[in-house]
Structure formats: C-alpha cells, structure tokens
Amino acid sequence: MANDLFNSLMNAPDENGRFGIFGGRFVSETLMPLILELEAEYEHAKTDESFWAEMDDLWKHYVGRPSPLYFADRLTARLGGAKVYMKRDELNHTGAHKINNVLGQLLLARRMGKTRIIAETGAGQHGVATATVCAKFGLKCVVYMGAHDVKRQAPNVFRMKLLGAEVIPVTSGRGTLKDAMNDAMRDWVTNVRDTFYCIGTVAGPHPYPAMVRDFQSIIGKEAREQMLEREGRLPDTLVACIGGGSNAMGLFHPFLNDSEVEIVGVEAGGKGVDDRMQHCASLSGGRPGVLHGNRTYLLQDDDGQILEGFSISAGLDYPGIGPEHAWLHDTGRAKYVYVTDDEALAAFQMCCETEGIIPALEPSHALAHVMKIAPDLPADHLICMNLCGRGDKDIFTVARALGVEMGTVA
Amino acid sequence: MTRIDDTFTRLKAEGKKAFVAYVMAGDPDYETSLEIVKGLPAAGVDIIELGVPFTDPMADGPTIQLAGQRALDGGQTLEKTLAMIAAFREGDATTPIVLMGYYNPIYNRGVARFLKDAVLAGVDGLIVVDLPPEEDAELCIPAQAAGLNFIRLATPTTDDKRLPKVLQNTSGFVYYVSITGITGSAAAEAGDVGPEVARIKAMTDLPVIVGFGIRTPEAAEAIAAVADGAVVGSAIVGQIAEGRAVDEIHAFVKRLAEGAHRA
Question: Are residues A319 and A298 in contact, defined by beta-carbon separation less than 8 angstroms?
Fold first, then answer.
C-alpha cells in the first residue's frame, strides 16, 4: 500500500462525508438541513475544550473509563500461541461500549436545545445506553426496536422502561433492526424541530459515521497507551466484531496509520456465508449499495432489495456495515473475516471457563477468530481484541442454543 | 421539451391545475397494476407518478410501505416496472410518467444502464427521495443529460438560504412536500401551503406541485388552488389495498381529479 494512503487514512471522510466512494448523505430533503446543522454543531464541539472536558468527566465518573486492558493469561496458555489482551469495554456502565457514543451525541443534543431523543436498537444495548443517559440528563427518550427483537431481548426492554424510555415495537418491514432504523428516521422526518436522532453505530448519513467513530475512538486511544505501557510497543493484531461496526471503528481508528499493526474485523457468519443468505456478513457476502443515508456494502438481491440478515447475536443482525469499514476493506488496510454462530458459541463458553468473564455474543465472534489465529502465532505476538459487551443479556439465548432448560439448571 | 413540459403548457392554455396520481408499480400484481395505470389518463390524471417498490421506503407511511411489500411479494422488480411503462406507452404517447422511489434499485442496476432503459421505456421524469442536491453527481446530472426531468422535493425545512440549491438542477416541476412527515400522515393545510408555494415560485419559473397529506377531492381542490397542482397517493393506494375493482379505483381517482381541476 502506498505511503500517502497510509498517511491519509486518519483524515477521512472528505467534506462530503465520503470515505472513498462510501458514505455520503443519501437522505430526504426534509432531513438534509438537520444533518447540516448537526455537522456544524459537531465541527464546533470537536475543537471546543469545554465539550471534551465534560466528556472526559462523564467518561471517568459515570462510565468508569478508562476500561482495563486485561492480559487473558489462561486463555493465552490454552491457545498456546500469541499473547491475548482484552480491552474490557464490557465493564462500562450499562455493560457495553455503546454509552461512549451516546454521551457524546446527547451532550451535542443538549447544546442544540433538543429535548426529545430518538434511537433505534437491535439487541437493546444502544437503547439501554440512550435511555440511561436521557434519564441522567432529564431528556425524553423514545426507542424504536423491531418487534422480533422486543421478544428475544425482553430484559433490555424492561430495563429501558425502568429508565423512563418509551419503547416502540416496530412491525413495519420484517420487524428487525433495519426496520427500527427506518421507523426512527420516519419519526425524525415528522418531528424535526425538537428531536435529536441518536444513531447507535458508525452508519447513517454524514456526519454520523465520523462522529460516532470519534466518540468511540476513546477505546483505541486507551488501548494504544495501555499496550505501550504494558509491553513497550504497539499490538501486532487488533480484532473486533462488526455489526454496524462502532466498537471496531473505535478500536481501529487510532491505529490506522500504524502500518505494522494488522487490523481484523469479524462479521457474523450466522449459519454460514453462502447463497442461503443466513448471515450478516455484508463485506464477505454483500455488495455496494445505498441504505440509511450512506453507500456501503449491503446484503441485497439482484433487484437491489435489501435482505434480512441472520445471526444468533441480535447486535450484529444488520444487513449493512459502516462506510468506513467498506473503505478500509476495499483499500486493503483492514481485513474482514467471519465466524459462524457455532464458533461464536464455543468462544463464549471458552471465555467463561478460562477467564471467568461472560462475554456478550457479539465479542464472542471476535474471540472465536482469536481462537483460530492465536495457536499458530509466536508467543511474542500481541493480539488486542475488543471485549465490547458483557453477556448477561445473552444467557437465555445461549441456554437455548445449548439445549439447556433454564428452570432445570443444577 | 419533455412530456411533462408539454403537459404544463397544455394545462396553462386550458386554465387548469394539474392533477398527479401516485400508484405503486406492481400493486397488487403486475397485470392489475398495469390495468389501473392504463385507465388513469381517462380518469383525469395529468401526470402519473409510478412508485418503484423498495424494501426500505424511509419517507413513506404504512400505506405505501405495504403497497411496496405487496408488489415485491408479487415478484415486481425495476425491470418489470420499466416493462410496465413500455406496455403503457403502446396505448398512450402523451401522458407523462414520473418514477418515484429510492436510489438503491437504480444504483444496483447501474445508472447508465438504468437511464438508457428508462428513456427507451418512455419514462419522463424521476423523483428519488434519498438523493438531495448534495448527491447530484450520482443521478440528477446524468439523468438530465439523458433527457429525463429530475424533480426535486422541497420541504418545510428547506429555508430561503437552501432553496436555490434545491432548485438549481431541478426540472419539469418542483414537488413541494406539504408537511414534515411521511406519506399518508398529517393533513395538508392550504393556509400553510399557499405562502410556501409563493416563496418557491418567487425563485423559479417551474410549476410547483404539492403532495403529502391530500386525501379528498375537496383537499385536492383547496391545495391545487394555491399551487400549480396536487398529488394524491396514499388515498388511492388505500383503495387498491382494500381490493377494490379497477373501475371503482378509476371512479375514485376521477373524483379527485375533478376536485383538483375545479381549482
């Protein structure tokens, strides 16, 4: 790869929100002025020290940052190869990385005088994070969640309600995350004056992919410092799971210019990436298209109709991927692989047994890839994977997948 | 000059406002849909807006969403929609057809190939909801070069500062979205719409047609009175959803058209 590309990787997107051909602002005219207003507000906040001072204070005292960089010694011994480090973003308040971004967006919303916050959610983690910060800031919160996900993530629905949010089950389309995003956008088009749309991942129209990435980059900035402190050098390989890709972008971004650091994103392979399309691997099994305000890789049919993804993990169950990942994929800077539901389940169990950490099913995908590569790597090879969420929410799903009746566990 | 320009010239000579009807291509099935479209000019429709089904119609309310799903379930594709227009053109050489939809099916087909096929089929204009002026290089400019009108949406959030940008590469007519919201939701108020249309007309010579939230002949008349015409979509699509016979649908459309033409 040419050096000038390497040096420009951290400067994307351009002024039109493009990462190469990806990204952009593919929204209806009604939303366009709102997106431009948000972009101006964010550009201003980005260089405003008081904004970041407030973020840092909340990250430290409310979220519990920095999250530890943990050396998984027993797992490393079990795999018998590379040293495996885990960035413990599952220890954040609300149990995942999602809150890093929500705090940033809602501080912006407050600056813009918006009083009503809407969000979409799949597994419910972003919905819970949004409901949490809305409760803290005293903002009205409405969360759109696919009717199918409302059923499979009932504990998170109850958590959001406890936090004072209104949860609207989405029945349009097929009632999944992408439909929840459609309905959130329909809400925004309708309530343009007082409403702020808090998107949960590095997707959507510009400036969302760049803005959410910037808020999540705290993960990579910390990991970089922590690794330098622990090992005196940068990691050799970064691994993170990808649905929309916000935890991965957050880990990857501060390392993009470090050509010696290998970057690997892990998509959800569901039941296998083949023409049955029972997966969510947009890069491995999709092609470029336009949805939800940006151009990126999408799962779609021959007519350009969007297909439903499939994954055991509700948080990865999205037929698209953030545009910056699409670009990193096409430029070759990052490598993208997938693991299947079964491999993720095996990693989930391995993490519980060897490290005493119950991971979410999402980062279990990242761990499954680590389990594949670590044994063949030398003992001084440093892997840093993002353990971006905890697994309490997933125990019912895992029990079902393992054929365990919850009532009879003894 | 496109069929759209010719239609407005004729309407002006007749002293009439335009009535635009929206139906979803392939709803409830290809054959019925073609039959519905064929009868629209005789029912008084001046311009036909033909919806291109898409799985994720973000600007549409439940009525149009479900119409798109029915069409897709029935096997409708962009290819078949173009074939439908070609079939319509065999019996009608003058009524303009505007395709309305979302960018992905077009992008997926390839812009150059789509434009060639669309011109060949007899399409006159395009309304692509998720292509604002910021993305003009994608389709708007190539479409105008291919001889198609690219009709832009102006909305209540399009302020005076932004309006010139919205009007810049627009042709055929300007589609004013009467409400902040999705199709088939709140009712358009002529009292609100009138000043907005005047604001747009002060900056362009193009006709301004108003859509979203118009459901009755009376509303079509009231809105058309303060603009150059009115669009009705969800109310017609709702009749199709109820399974009404084709001639009943045409009778319904005729009452709406008479309303708009009274203005």
Answer: yes
Mean of pLDDT values over A184-200 = 96
* pLDDT confidence of residue A310: 86
Domains and CATH numbers, chain B: 3-262 (3.20.20.70)
Q: Determine whether B60 is an active site residue.
A: yes
Q: Which residues of B161-175 are buried (b: 16+ CB within 10 A; e: fewer)?
A: ebbeebbeebbbbbb
pLDDT tens-digit profile of B61-94? 999 999 999 999 999 999 999 999 999 999 999 9
Kindly list the structural domains of chain A, giving each domain's residue range(s) and its CATH number in brackets, ordered by start: 20-60+98-212 (3.40.50.1100), 64-95+217-404 (3.40.50.1100)
B131 contacts A33? CB cut-off 8 A = no
pLDDT at B42: 98
Residue type at position A253: H
* pTM attached to this predicted model: 0.96
Q: A–B: how many Cβ contacts below 8 A?
A: 115
CB contact under 8 A, A189 and B59: yes
- Find chain B residues with C-beta within 8 A of A29's C-beta: 132, 152-155, 157-158, 166, 177
DSSP A68: P
Please name which of A49, A47, A57, A161 lies closest in space to residue A103, comparing C-alpha atoms: A57
Q: Which residue of A has its CA nearest to B183?
A: A186
Share of chain A above pLDDT 70, in %: 97
- Please judge whether A290 and B104 are an interchain contact, meaning their C-beta atoms are less than 8 angstroms apart: yes
ipTM for this model: 0.96
CA distance B231 to chain A (A): 18
* Cα A37 from Cα A305, distance rounded (Å): 31
What token pair was written down for A399? Answer: 């029990």
- Residue A16: its chain B contacts at CB < 8 A? 134
Among B64, B106, B134, the strongest candidate for a mutation testing the A interface, having the largest count of A CBs within 10 A, is: B134
pLDDT(A409) > 60: no
Q: What pLDDT is attached to residue A5?
A: 62
Averaged pLDDT of chain A: 94
